[in-house]
Write a structure and sequence with these properties.
The structure is a homodimer. In chain A, helix 2 packs antiparallel against helix 14 and helix 3 runs antiparallel to helix 9. By secondary structure, chain A is of the alpha/beta class. The termini of chain A are far apart. Chain A has two domains: 279 residues, Zn peptidases (Aminopeptidase, 3-Layer(aba) Sandwich); 155 residues, Glucose Oxidase, domain 1, CATH 3.50.30. In chain A, 36% of the residues lie in helices and 23% in strands. The interface between A and B is large, with 87 and 87 residues.
Chain lengths: 477, 477
Amino acid sequence: MRKIIFLFSISFVMLSCDKKEEKVLDSNQLSSEEKIDSTTIKTLFNSALTDGKSYEWLRDLTQNVGGRLSGSPEAQMAVEWGEKLMKEVDLDSVWLQPVMVPHWVRGEKEIATYTSNGVQKNVPICALGFSIATPESGVLAEVIEVKSLEEAEALGDKMEGKIVFFNRPFDDTLINTFSAYGGCVDQRVNGAAVCGKFGAKAVIVRSMTNSIDDYPHTGTMSYGDLPIEKYIPTAAISSRAAEILSTDLKENPSLKFYFKQNCETLPDAPSFNVVGEIRGSKTPENIFVVGGHLDSWDLGEGAHDDGTGVVHSLEVAYLFKKNNIKPKNTLRIVFFMNEENGTRGAKKYAELAILNKENHIGGLESDAGGHTPRGFSIDANSMNTALLQSWKKLLSPYGLHDLDKGGSGADISPLKGENVTLVGYRPDSQRYFDYHHTSRDTFDKVNKRELELGSASMASIIYLMDKYLYSDAPIKP
Amino acid sequence: MRKIIFLFSISFVMLSCDKKEEKVLDSNQLSSEEKIDSTTIKTLFNSALTDGKSYEWLRDLTQNVGGRLSGSPEAQMAVEWGEKLMKEVDLDSVWLQPVMVPHWVRGEKEIATYTSNGVQKNVPICALGFSIATPESGVLAEVIEVKSLEEAEALGDKMEGKIVFFNRPFDDTLINTFSAYGGCVDQRVNGAAVCGKFGAKAVIVRSMTNSIDDYPHTGTMSYGDLPIEKYIPTAAISSRAAEILSTDLKENPSLKFYFKQNCETLPDAPSFNVVGEIRGSKTPENIFVVGGHLDSWDLGEGAHDDGTGVVHSLEVAYLFKKNNIKPKNTLRIVFFMNEENGTRGAKKYAELAILNKENHIGGLESDAGGHTPRGFSIDANSMNTALLQSWKKLLSPYGLHDLDKGGSGADISPLKGENVTLVGYRPDSQRYFDYHHTSRDTFDKVNKRELELGSASMASIIYLMDKYLYSDAPIKP
């Protein structure tokens, strides 16, 4: 017995060694400058993983402020929270950029129901941002299911007096879930504009997610150039409810769907971007901006969208300061307001950059969640794209393999220019649309290490960008 | 107002496109054979993501069978579950391999407590697998904290009558959390063997995790060659309790820690490996084995460890059958019994392979959880390692970048040989030790897409191995 136990103990220890495969860069393959970079990057990761602050900052923002839609009291609390925190991190200067933002409010919780084969079904539903309310008595109508805007257009007047139900699901075969989102979200954004034109009574849309569950996903919509008298209420229903409704409609094409929502667009409200910077030690007139958005939808706590981006961004500055890394160029951290329904903060930031003749040489945005790092997407000229891609061997030990060309993010893309290098942080996307714009986007869905690895990844690429981009001869964008 | 809404609608649509970065292989860079492989791999992924069964299989195993420690009635239920499921997948043959396994039982829930500065603290604790019980009245003793086996050894007789507390935490700076585990687990496995020698009364060990939380992590231990009369009870306490106890000990070095556990090692029990295969169409005498382990610890549901490995493995066969991919060599799926405390199933499988003169040319094991795929570790000769690494361009569009040399897994490593190519599936490791061996290792921690991507990743590399390894001239291992 003892002997046997001893034997499997050995096999067990073998197992633990089997799984022990920490990656180390072979320093013989590195130039002396790359060795310095490799050491600095390791320092940034060690620091984030042992002394990172992002997780506790995120806890505070999500649990003490919570959901913070533009124009809400919570959004104002978030501004104050951000300004205070930037000062605590002891940035060289911290200020607010005033900006007027849309102010849409959800009102009372929405309800939806229908009866099929004598069974009454309650449907998880939520109004879409900027939708108008239903009449006080709600909307009750037959439902026409479609899979695309084109299919809806083709229906024309047949949709008059009906509720049009957009039910094209995510393409689950796309590995990057943002691609699936990109392939579906036109239904949510433009469904009401198309159907209002033909006198539909309302639009409901399947939630934007890969998951089949009971959580409706909100998000912004637009009436486009529809005359105001043709505006119709629009809402998202959960993916499971969409599947069930679709099945029920096959059996009972004339079933009547009822919903009621009380949302309202109020006059624009004053708000702010929160901005702080570490002044560059050599060429302070050159600016790298690093940011995420401070506003969020109201249903959850705005954890992955985009509390993580906010704390990632500030932690870049924190890691620089803590490790006494002095950027040559100015490192500016921005908590953008109103990404979700207007990107007014982004536009204001870019407008002021032009007005103040600021020289932005690059930017980095985190607005794809706080999951484990995968890489960055690069929106830059071909020379700088190649330069960033040449850092792959320095970044890959941290799981940062993806360095492809692609967009950066909605908040920094207004800064785009021939010589501006814009980068989007790209964490793993598999779980993102389980939470996105729902009541499930809460702090407990964020993993501490994954979040900290994100901060360190971002700090690492900013360290390299600051060191190597335009190092001798700054080029005006 | 309308105009403004329309404007941000456009900027929003820009955002979705920004994030839309599906990777596609440039087919001009592929040979004609690689194009076939690329298409087949895409088919496997599409199939797993739209028609995968692994998630529902896992739900059934974890929620209807639950935790299934070797020798338990649940382990027997799992064997029956596995055999039935393999038959449902319509493998060419399905059989059970009898194997005697250790039979350790936890007994009543453990309790632990101590008082510091007049405050009584209850400590989350669990016995380690193969530990003896405490006396019925429990163990009450002063505590000596150490950080390593060497430090304990050096204490010698000073530990007589004391509880030795191993409290070396995970090294959080290691990116691969399995490396951190490998650097700590000697405390859990061998702590009691070292301290029993010097007459310690018991051993408690900090849980094996990066996370600071309230969940004790069980796992196997060994008394090594200690005489039976020197066996002492050993248990794990939660990481947070370890931190608090350490602090309290600094203030009150003579505080007394109490715990009580009722575990027991019963006589070995009969059990089974569950085996099924698709017979090879050309060289059926050559075998690829694909497996995970069916047993689990008792505290949770054995979801990530290793229900995911079990359903991954069977889904490889399911995806081959569903897509009419006929392996040239025999594809054998094995649900190994008793990986957690004995690896008796693995040993039995290897023993029978020799006895039956089976020609195993390769193997693939999934025992690192069901998180998002990162790659494979390769334990093979240098020629075959290079061959597998040459598939990187086929695999990287699916996030499979890691193709490094390394161990495969505890259940297939007994098959190791010069010409046997053993591979370990390597998903992202960041969250794994949040759940490992705890009551939190439950179905809800597994993400459907991440799981399915794992099955498809494994099917893809097995497809390539079957096609290219030893394709013309099988080499006997």
